[in-house]
Amino acid sequence: MPYDVLVVGGVGVDTIVRVPELPVPMTESVQVPPIHDHVARTGNGVARGCHTLGLATKLIDFLGEDRDGALIADAHRRSGLDFSHLVSPAGTRRAPGTRSCPASCTPGRPVTRPRTRLGPARSRARTRTRNPGPEPP
Q1: DSSP 111
Q2: pLDDT tens-digit map of 30-62
Q3: Which domain does 42 fall in, by range?
Q4: In a domain, 90, yes or no
Q5: Is 7 inside a domain boundary?
Q6: What's the whole-number mean pLDDT along residues 107-136?
Q7: How many Å apart are CA 69 and CA 101, to the nearest integer?
Q8: CB 86 within 8 A of CB 55
Q9: How many domains does the chain have?
Q10: What pLDDT, on the 0 to 100 scale, is given for residue 88?
């Protein structure tokens, strides 16, 4: 089948967390309502838009063998968009600083991740909040 549009790459998952306000927490955790994952990214938006407009569209990218990869493949299968992928050993791309849930985890259940040390950016943010003063160079 000849295509009008070929989109290479740009598929991933974005996580949406809606909060009424974002106070500076006195603890390391803030309770939030349900968290939702959405198929997103620029290539995905371009391909889905072209497909919706009736153009013969093909989308190709790398996906991991994980829950996010299955979410993407299923979304494109349901929409009828012609999507193909190669398996990425690094997993499915997400927003910077987040990781995909392994295929063995159960959606809707928390994934335990190792705690990380607070980086310099977080330390500076806490310092500025407690003692507002001139910005560091």
Answers
A1: P
A2: 777 788 888 989 999 999 999 999 999 999 999
A3: 1-14+34-97
A4: yes
A5: yes
A6: 44
A7: 10
A8: no
A9: 1
A10: 92
CATH number, position 65: 3.40.1190.30
Q: State the Cα–Cα distance between residues 91 and 105, nearest whole angstrom.
A: 14
Radius of gyration, CA atoms only, the chain = 19
User: ∠ CA(6), CA(44), CA(51), 5° rounding?
Assistant: 60
3 state SS of 52: helix
Q: What does the pLDDT look like over 81-103, one tens digit per residue?
A: 999 999 999 888 876 655 555 54
User: Which residue, chain included where needed, has tokens 């013969």?
Assistant: 56
Indicate the DSSP class of residue 112: P
Nearest-angstrom CA–CA distance, 113 and 44:
28
Token pair listed for 105 = 């985890």
Whether the model pTM is above 0.85: no
Banded model confidence at residue 136, pLDDT cuts 50, 70, 90: low
